[in-house]
Amino acid sequence: MEGRGLEPALRSSAQESPRSIAKFILVVEDDPDLGQLVAEVLESAGYRTAVAGNGAEALDRLQTIDHPDLILLDMMMPVMDGWKFHEEQQKVPAFASIPVITVTADGNARGKAASIQAAGYVTKPVTIDSLLDEVERVFGQ
Amino acid sequence: MASPVPLLVVDDHPGNRSALRAILSSPDYRIVEAASGAEALLRLLQEDFAVLLLDVVMPDMSGFDLAAAVKERERTATVPIVFLTAEATDADLAHRGYEVGAADYLITPLAPDMVRAKVAVFAQLFQEKQRNEEQAALLLEAQRNESDFRLIDLRLANERRYRSLAEAIPHIVWTARPDGTVDYFNQRWFEYTRLSVEHAAGSWLGIVHADDSAKCLTEWENAVRSGEMFQTECRLRRGCDGVFRWHLCRAVPERSPTGQIVSWVGTFTDIEDQKRVQAIQAEFKRTLDAEPDSVIFFDPTSWHILYVNHGASVLLGYARDELLRMAPADFMVDHDAAGLLQLLAPLLDGSQPHILLETQFRRKDPSAGPIDVSVQFICIGPDRIVSIARDITERKHTQLERELLYRQAVDAVHARDEFLSVASHELRTPLSALQLQIQTLLQPPRRLPQAPLSPEQLKPKLEMANRQVERLTRLIGELMDVSRITAGRLRLEFEEIDLCAVVRDVVGRLGEEAARANSSIEVRTTMPVVGMWDRSRIEQVVTNLLSNAFKFGGGKPIEISVENGGFTGRLVVADHGIGIAPEDVERIFHRYEQAISSRAFGGLGLGLYIARQLIEAHGGTIRVESQPGAGSTFTIDLPKGATTLNEGGTWREEALSRH
What we know:
The structure holds two protein chains of two kinds. Chain A contains seven helices and five strands, in the order αβαβαβααβαβα.
């Protein structure tokens, strides 16, 4: 909690939002354990979440769930990877403008994020701080 | 008015014949043409010609052979022969010409003035001869009629004409008595030798170079004795500067109508310049022949090849005289005559000094395949192109090899980078899950008040952490195996095991993974199949094959069976998933390779590589049959004795690299 005290504005914005208008985040991650954990962490910080196991599943979910405010996108996934998902996302005008935070493992995380004009990026291994800081930074923009 | 003098032109090239016809076009001449040696002989038997203009190179009979045939026949023996040759550059060739009785020769391309001057001399001699014959006939008649006056007049008139002709021509002309004593020199002799009549003293031998005089004297004496034509080449001293110049020396006997030699008529023709040109050209040719590149001169209007060097003959596999009958487009792969003309247009209109081209030449032997060449075309005259071609087959080959190596290196680097990227992702994903789980347990997430967890709540979290640790352990194990295999330090521990039991164990252990992949596994085992194998490694192989089937099996049933093959045990794993394209079948057993992008299916792409290495370390084989879209069947045959291993059971990379 110590470090968090330095960012009261960011914290309060999410904290003071009524539950009904809490930001909604779609987590796209092929590892079910990790997807669930990320969702838990985001929810504990006051966000609403949905989880999809790959790009294709995410596209399906977008049709049925609320319009997400942010997509947290693992780039390397079976069936449909992050790049392909982003390509498909851009084809649908309603989804094209949803900001994306990429989740990647290797050294060139920034480059990979830039390759799809992502709003931000998180590098694996993911920590609570790195995840929430980046999400808040993107929403603060 | 005298009738036109008949000339016989013998050449197989119509172009050359028409060129001569154009040069000699005159009402004074009647030109008869023959396209072959045989035709020429026929014409020669039909009528007398003032001169025979004869191409040295003809397909049916060489000029030399024809000349020899002409000289052999009494009817035609006296016809002067002038050779037409592009090959006059060879001193040997010139010699051969004179040997077979050539009076002279002309080098092609023809210099019209030279041709006309030379032919004029022979035409005049012919006319003289005809007149002589007419007069001889008259003389005979006169003798019979004893009307001497007219005869003497005629003889004197004849003599005068003869002399004036001799004075007119640019050669030294002399006459000698039947015994060889010279009784007349023309003006040209005095100009050349600067000797007075007295000095000459009845012989020309005094001005012959010391080195040539013995040979000259012998041959002249032989001729005088036998009455045969005299012909030799020797150096004659020029009076003005004492320089010796090469001359062609000839003398023919003149006979009375009864066959008696009445005199000799001799000519000396200055061939010094010709000899010098020949020497330079011979030098030039030797240089070109020493050149490994192919050098070809050709005429871009007629497409005649005028000269080829030794290198061209070697490169193309044709003899030189074969090439001289061909056109450049005959051996060019990418250009016919029209195409070549288009290519050479900038040379011919002068807009480019030379043209460089990489192309291919066809060889005489088609089985040898075309040669890659770099050709330079240079224009050296309005109707002369030189092409210099270099064989670059070797260079091309090296270039291709280098490109291939480069591509392989790039592919290898790409495969490694791809692997590192995948490995990084595969290792960091479970690490992320572990880290987040531990962090949430240690430090409650930001906003929610942290209620102490009950053991029931804690258990699934710890189980998840344990799963991720197991996954990390397996990944690290795979990496370690690859490292061991690469270093040749894979160690197998053999014991007697039943393959069916191993399969059942592994399938039981992978139940959860199978459920996650929505795949059912059908196990078909019968009697125990027992062999000396490394249990943990065989388990690993079965695990890898099943994981592969889960990953690519598309959620359809998977069959695994064990069969007894006598000395071997057989294991078959079949899925009904996406299958493998034929071109990828071999690749899937390589390191870091998946038939389709790793990104799309996850995993390190090491499973099948490790499986193959482990099976081969057991002396066994693994193969795959697959149809894209219908699934893949992996078949493993394991020798039960495992006898292919060396002592200590350590598998070494060298042993495998023999595959």
